[in-house]
Structures are given as C-alpha cells and as structure tokens.
C-alpha cells in the first residue's frame, strides 16, 4: 500500500511585528485585554503578497527534504487571500520555484485551508495520481482586515508554511482524517467586501467589514473539532492516551483549552504558539507543526492529532504518524525582500489607503 510521507517542512513569517501595544494606539484596547481573552501577544504583518511568502516556505520545505523544484509533481495551495483568482496562486508558486512539472491547485476553506490541502495532496499520492507534492498554508490577511473592528483586528496575522510529501511503502503520514462543515452557520464568520459580488460596489476592492459572532464561533469550533478528533481516533483505532502531540489550530487560547478538556487530553501534550503569531488562518496550524518539529516536540514514529476549524464553518482533524525525518537535509538561502517598515507603519499605510 502507498502512503505519503512528510519529509520536508518550512515556514516563512514576515519580519514586521504588530504588538498588542501597537494595536492600542488606534483601537480601544490594551495588552491585558487582548492577552486575557485570546492568549495573543503579537502577530506578523506582511510587506509582500501571499505567493511570495508561500514561495519562501516551499523553498525551505524542499531544502529540508533534500529535494529540488523538479521533484514536485503537485502544488496544493490553501489560502483565503490569494494574489489573484485567475490565474490561480499555486501556478505563481510553480513559476517562482521553477517547478515546471507540477500541477497546481488552490483550496479555499479559510483557516482549515492548509489541512484540506493536505488531504488533497495525500489522497492524490496514495491513489497514484502523483508521487510527490508541496502543500501550502499561507495568508496575507492584513490588507483586507477591518482595522476599525476590535473584535477581529486583534486576532489575525500573516504568514506561511509548506510541507513536502512523497510516496512511500511505510505506514506514515496521514493515517486518518475527518472533514466537515456547518454550512448553515456560515454567516457568523464572514468577510463582507471580499469577493466578486462586491467588485462594482466599492471604491477600494480590499475594503471590508467582518461579521464575527464570537460566542457562536467558539461553540461551533469546539464542537466541530471535537467530533472530528473522535472520528479519526475511531477510524484509526488509536487511543487518545497514545497521541504523542496535539497540534491544534491557534485561533484562541480559550478554544484550545476547552477542546483539550473535552478530549480529556494531557495539556502537556498540546503545542501552542498563539502568543507569537495570532491566527494566520490557513497558515496557522501548519506553522505550528513546523515549529513543533523545529523545537524537538516531534520525534520519529510519533502520532500527531491536528484539529482545525475555519470560515464556512469548516472543520477537520488529521491523525498523522511522523516518519523518520526530524532534521532538515539542508537549509535554503532564499529570503523575502527586505522590509524597512514596522508592523504598525504597514497597518497605518493600509488604513490610509482606504481613507
């Protein structure tokens, strides 16, 4: 039987940091207010488009796997903030990499985008359609953020991560997954102004206002992720106590804590980096996975549980058996273009451009 081993991983975080104190300069908020409600201390603001973040993350994933762009059969790009709708963003990553052999797919499921993309790539490798794939989760949310809305402006940031998958005979990679959606609740988390139905209705195409009903999102997020986790454990026959590490979507520390209690998991087995990046939507859970590997929290043969939820309201969980790769084969010298501005200045520029 064919499996899809994760043999490479990489991330790309833009250098400009936006702190809670920065947000307090133009919103009625404070570091204490944000931290106590979300667990977030800072987030990144990108000075480049999302495809460029994805390109750098992919180069780092390829280097970690000891591969070149010519080894890539497929690129699956999960995001909500693609540079363009047509042509797709995955094709731009292909062009930047020089991965001429690669087929290119975009996946848009908001915060679950990286994990849904993992399912697409895993399924295509296991079915024999392709032998290798780059899976991307990346976002540049800052240009479409409603920076006047405290409920959402404090939550989100920009970033990217990528995984390299290749076919193998060993039982490794994604062993079970569960995907779903509360379509009837889609309006409680939505971005009005982002999409073609708004194309002729506003002066600035990125101008938006966000519908975000926090209490309802909280309930749906915990419910969706919990049932997805139960399903993958049942499918795989793995007991919860045998999970080595839980890498959840990092949307809110209270959601993570509630989910962990509901699953009766040991909190010491949960990876959290929300304080550094906030919610990077499709990039969030994949950046967390990359950092868990970098920090030695993932060891060969470990079993990982990765629940996520996002707009739609989509939800998912993936059970992953990690292979033997925990040390990068090489590093990449590819870097983002230099950023000369602070995170606060970048945000002020966005706000002024919409004025």
TrEMBL record:
Domain Beta-ketoacyl-[acyl-carrier-protein] synthase III N-terminal: 105-183
Active-site residue list: 111, 249, 279
Ligase in keyword set: no
UniProt KW Cytoplasm keyword: yes
One GO term describing the cellular component: cytoplasm
Localization in the cell: Cytoplasm
Region (ACP-binding): 250-254
Domain Beta-ketoacyl-[acyl-carrier-protein] synthase III C-terminal: 233-322
Recorded metabolic or biological pathway in which this protein acts: Lipid metabolism; fatty acid biosynthesis
This protein's UniProt keywords: Acyltransferase, Cytoplasm, Fatty acid biosynthesis, Fatty acid metabolism, Lipid biosynthesis, Lipid metabolism, Multifunctional enzyme, Transferase
GO biological process entries: fatty acid biosynthetic process
Reactions catalysed according to its record: malonyl-[ACP] + acetyl-CoA + H(+) = 3-oxobutanoyl-[ACP] + CO2 + CoA
Matches recorded under InterPro entries: ACP_syn_III_C, ACP_syn_III_N, FabH, Thiolase-like
The EC number(s) this enzyme carries: 2.3.1.180
One function term, GO molecular function aspect: beta-ketoacyl-acyl-carrier-protein synthase III activity
Assembly and interaction partners: Homodimer.
Domain remarks: The last Arg residue of the ACP-binding site is essential for the weak association between ACP/AcpP and FabH.
NCBIfam families: fabH, PRK09352.1
Role according to the record: Catalyzes the condensation reaction of fatty acid synthesis by the addition to an acyl acceptor of two carbons from malonyl-ACP. Catalyzes the first condensation reaction which initiates fatty acid synthesis and may therefore play a role in governing the total rate of fatty acid production. Possesses both acetoacetyl-ACP synthase and acetyl transacylase activities. Its substrate specificity determines the biosynthesis of branched-chain and/or straight-chain of fatty acids.
The family this protein is said to belong to: Belongs to the thiolase-like superfamily. FabH family.
Protein name (record): Beta-ketoacyl-[acyl-carrier-protein] synthase III
Lineage of the species this protein comes from: Bacteria, Pseudomonadati, Pseudomonadota, Gammaproteobacteria, Alteromonadales
